[in-house]
Amino acid sequence: MARNVEIRDAHFPGRAPIDAYGNGGFRFADMSHRGSLLCLPSGIYGWEMTEEALLDVSLFDRVLAEAGDFEFLLIGTGSDIRPIPAPLKAALRARGISSDPMGTGAAVRTYNIMLSESRPVAAALIAI
Fold first, then answer.
1. pTM score, two decimals?
2. Dihedral of the alpha carbons of 64, 85, 113, 95, in degrees to the nearest 10
3. The pairing of beta strand 36-40 with beta strand 43-47
4. Is the Cβ–Cβ distance between 107 and 75 less than 8 Å?
5. 5-37 core/surface letters (b: 16 or more CB in 10 A; e: else)
C-alpha cells in the first residue's frame, strides 16, 4: 500500500555558515540544497529565485517579516553584481535594514564572516 508523500518547503531551523556554493546550489550543516537560499535568523529557507528573475519586493516577504531580528542583508545577485531596485531598497530601509548587493560568492564569504562575529546579518543568495 502506497503512503502519501508530504513535500514541504525547504527549511533548516537554525543559523549555519555556508560551506560551499556552485553547480546550482549550496552546502551547509552537512546538507546540500539545489536552488537559491534565504539565510535568516529563524533559519535557512529554499527560495524560488533565479539569476534571470527581477529583484521584486514580493520575493522578499519572508525577509521583511523578520525585520528587527537583523540589521544587514547581503544580497548575492548571482554570477554578476546588479543593483537593488529602488522599491526593494526603500522597503528594506523603511524597516531599518541596510542592504548590500554583491556576487553570490562574495555574499557567501561575507555572510560567513559576519555570522562568525555574531553580527545581526541575513543573506538572500541566488544560486549559481
1. 0.90
2. -30
3. antiparallel
4. yes
5. eeeeebebeebeebeebeeebbebeeeebebbb
Residue 116, SS3? helix
Distance between CA atoms of residues 70 and 125, nearest Å: 16
Find out whether 98 and 88 touch, Cβ atoms under 8 Å.
no
Spatial CA neighbour of 64 closest among 33, 79, 42, 36: 42
| Nearest alpha carbon to residue 47 among 99, 92, 12, 91 | 12
The pLDDT tens digits of the residues spanning 55-82 come to 999 999 999 999 999 999 999 999 999 9
Three-state secondary-structure class, residue 112 = helix
Q: Which residues contact 26 (CB under 8 A, 6 or more apart)?
A: 18, 19, 20, 32, 33, 37, 108, 125, 127
